[in-house]
Amino acid sequence: MKDRLFIALQYLLPHHTLSRLVGKLASCRTVWLKNALITRFIKRFNVDMSQAAQPEPTAYANFNDFFTRALREGARPLSDAPNGILCPADGAISQLGTIEQGRLFQAKGHSFSLTELLGGDTERATPFMGGQFATVYLSPRDYHRLHMPVTGTLREMIYVPGRLFSVNQTTAENVPDLFARNERVVCIFDTELGPMAMVLVGAMIVASIETVWAGQITPPTRTLKTWQYDVSARAPIVLEKGAEMGRFLLGSTVILTFAPNQMEWCEKLKAGSPVEMGQLMGTQAEQTSLAL
User: Which residues carry out catalysis?
Assistant: First the structure.
């Protein structure tokens, strides 16, 4: 009954209006208010501030600065496994596996379209058909900066408008096509493993999505928008393995997709597995490594 009421509210609530209001509150610099928000949040979600570069909660200018806090040096050592693919974020595996018949498994009998996830362009989705995907959910207590699983050269970025359903397990199990319905930013990189997509999925009260090269990605009108990047330019946008690539202002989900026969996920990972940014998440497929 409780879950059914929660899902019903998800459909009825004015997602974007609510998120904008929360965004204004999160950017407020009034000292007593931002300190109250931060300290209450830390207590409510049991946030471990000992891992933060700035462990003093009241030192942050506003809630957004606290939420996107940097980690202290050495808090997330990067795996040095040969041909390793790093986890892009702290959180938990929602699902991972093979993209079958152009669809990604969501939860409990639900799947969603790869083409729709990447913005509705069949040509863009084609290289990933039959490849691998992983969905990582970031809870409120997690570190909310996103990092590169492998070194990549940015080729394309797409803003896809949509709803802002919550992305927790309850909604994943009950809202069809959840991740292909929510607002998202799709980033396509060229890597040693071929193309890689990192999809930053918005969610209820996520005030914004940012990337390190473009800042906040919320076009003035909520219509699909595409940015092309010249990979042959004199100074292409190249992000090294482990480098920060973006962040969420309030939590959400990142989805990775790779082309077929290029990589394999670590066998120990499964739905529900906790993960940390920088840990080994997968490796290049053997034939890929030999070909390089």
Answer: 90, 147, 252
